[in-house]
Amino acid sequence: MRRHRKGCPICELGVRVVDYKDDRTLQRFITERGKILPRRLSGTCARHQRQVSTAIKRARFIALLPFVRTQG
Amino acid sequence: MPRRYEIVYIFDSAMEEAKVKESLERFHKLITDTENASPVTGSSHWGKRSLAYPISGREIGYYVVEQFATDPKLLGEFERALKLDQEVLRYQIIVNEGEAPRPPREPKRDDDDDDDDDAPIIRKTDDEPEESDD
Question: Tens digits of per-residue pLDDT, B55-106?
Fold first, then answer.
């Protein structure tokens, strides 16, 4: 059984550099709790995963994204 | 040799817009050099925005994003002023790699770079051998 490999979502967007200010896009790469999604779940290519993780960390610092989201 | 930076300021949302502008002017003076009279190349006021988590008790911040070019030597004094300012809840300076010229990348050797990260041999044996079982 061959797994279907989906393309990198960032490559599909056609952006060269991931913007840390674009919290809408970055939201797709964190879990409900706020953790960074691993590559095996997000499907990003290596280069974009690196960019995404840096961008998420920057976005967290300027309070665009939560470090941790606690519910109830 | 000036470098390009991008800064995000988060001001106290209780501040009026005129006061924010005044503070910015003050900060701009610190990054202004004799040879570089107008360091700020781009600026956008996002206005009030709710913070993802409270910063020093505030739930809302006034965001300003600016691009500027300055000599790295001036940054120390600039950051000191930002840290001392009570009205700046937080700031973040990053080297602006956005439009900066990059060295040309070496072209890939082969044209089959689409599937070189999952060779058929690996695919047959196991799915993800390096995956940890947490």
Answer: 999 999 999 999 988 888 888 888 999 999 889 999 999 988 655 444 556 6
Q: Does A60 touch chain B (CB under 8 A)?
A: yes
Nearest-angstrom CA–CA distance, A14 and B18? 39
- Check CB contact under 8 Å for B8 and A21: yes
Instruction: Choose among A5, A17, A61: nearest Cβ to B118.
Output: A5
Those residues whose C-beta lies under 8 Å from the C-beta of residue B120, and which sit 6 or more positions away, are none
Structure tokens at B87: 């009205």
Interchain CB contact of A17 with B (< 8 Å): yes
Residue B69 sits in a domain whose CATH number is 3.30.70.60
Q: Could you tell me the residue range of the domain that residue B21 belongs to?
A: 3-95
For chain A, give the percent of residues with pLDDT over 70: 90
Q: Is residue B131 part of a domain?
A: no
CATH number for the region A9-61 comes to: 4.10.640.10
